[in-house]
Known about the structure:
Number of helices: 10
Amino acid sequence: MNVLRTPDERFGNLPDYPFAAHYMEVGSGETALRVHYLDEGPRDAAPILLLHGEPTWSYLYRKMIPPLVAAGHRVIVPDLVGFGKSDKPSEQGDYTYARHVAWMAQLLFDGLRLRAITLFGQDWGGLIGLRLVAAEPERFARVVMSNTGLPTGARPLSKAFLAWQKFSQTAPDFPIGALVNGGSQTTLTADEIAAYDAPFPDDTYKAGARILPSLVPTSADDPSHHDNVQAWGVLEHFERPFLCCFGDSDPITKGGDAVFVSRIPGAASQPHVTIAGGGHFIQEDKGAELASLIIDFIRRTTTTH
């Protein structure tokens, strides 16, 4: 496996990102990879785990981390392998859905040994995060999902997603920062767009970003179909609090919260929210509102789970 590592100087002077870097190795031997994560707030507090998706990194959560920490919470924010300050295997074939789940499980369960987790997942942060919940549900106190899903390939995905999947594989240029800007309802500054481009000095660093849309199961023949069906089998018995906070302006996942609400017991009777003005990258559009919802959700459910 040929592994690239973004030079540190690419991350100098990022706007509103004053957080200390932490690193841990996952895998072993020739497949060992260095994964970056943020660890803010008191170490003895129950952790809030914020998982990003495609094609972002922990920078996406810069608006949510400070209010969560100010409320007394520990906040863990990893960069997926292939993104942010984490190592980047250079071949698209190095990435699989199962590997992403295994890498995060090794970091969060074996390395950091997190328990009593409040999970927030968006985009691939949901696809990976929900597989982690299904693998070790006892580690999770509650779950918040936003603009995501857990597809098995049994049902057709939206035309918007299929177009995005095709674009990621065929576009000669894959402008990460511009894509994040286009998927947000707010307009990012030039410096913010540059921050999303920072992990990727050139296209050779983008193998993970380009392949991830193609790893979403779109048929029952997909390699991850069985694993996601099994995960749903666990989630359909998950009774701890489960909240949906989807944006109303995301063409890719709009309406996807209904599946969670109807199938997961912990979602029953929760005050699910449709957030006005929330695009796909809802953390950019409504970061402070999401943080407030998470804080209130934890406060309200701490004595009931």
